[in-house]
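Page 47, continued from p. 46.
Same chain as before, 124 aa.
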Amino acid sequence: MDTNNPVDAYIAQFPPAVQARLQALRAAIREAAPDAAEKISYRMPTFYLHGNLVHFAAFKDHISLFPDPSGVAAFAHRLTDYKTSKGTIQFPHDKPLPLELVREIVRYRADENRRAAEARRKRK
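Result:
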């Protein structure tokens, strides 16, 4: 881990078990959107691809994934085991992370961002 990297520094502030979960989530996101850039936005690790793709953050009892309201809505039928809000999914620390589902959500968001970027280019 490179603590000069702001995402690494963010992850390093948590206990080892939470760090492992954050790294697993980060790896799943990177696998699903290898062209996305990492940065910190809204004080959270963020993947950026033609705009914000997803954010994630650790809390006392859970890790939240922020895939935009569209990402939550598109997968609502598969998120019934998790607490959700308009643009957030909470993964409790006492349950395994659904990494394949995360990959699917991220691929969905990447496609959505690519389509929006293409539409913007066509309007110019």
